[in-house]
Amino acid sequence: MLLHIVARGRIGRSPEAELVERYLKRVAWPTRVTELSDTGGKVPPVEPATRIVMLDEKGENLPSKTMAERLGRWRDDGIRETRFLIGAADGFDDAQRQQADMLLSFGKATWPHMMARAMLAEQLWRASSILAGHPYHREG
After folding, report:
1. Do 37 and 83 meet the contact criterion of CB atoms below 8 Å apart?
2. What is the pLDDT of residues 98-107, one digit of tens each?
């Protein structure tokens, strides 16, 4: 299953970009990052068997193990792509949220979208390591 991050804003050459790259290199599944300008830009077409996950303040605050289980279930159900959307500074509106299969939050704090991208990359590595039985994740 492809893990595809579609993010508003350019990360450029920054410490956050290095973190994203570091974690995504570790993920055994195929990954892709698509960057869009803050407004406009062409969003890649959504193919059949795709799940849409929006990072949103109104989303679920999932434990890492639950996130891993959900990704594993989607993979096992034949989902070909899970697309993670990171919005611009103002996030997503209600109409956009309704198009998502899942809203995901990294807690009640507000995070810069570049940090959110790095945090998402780490969580994807963590989820894939949990599913592979790798000792990276230690719970409790």
Report:
1. no
2. 999 999 999 9
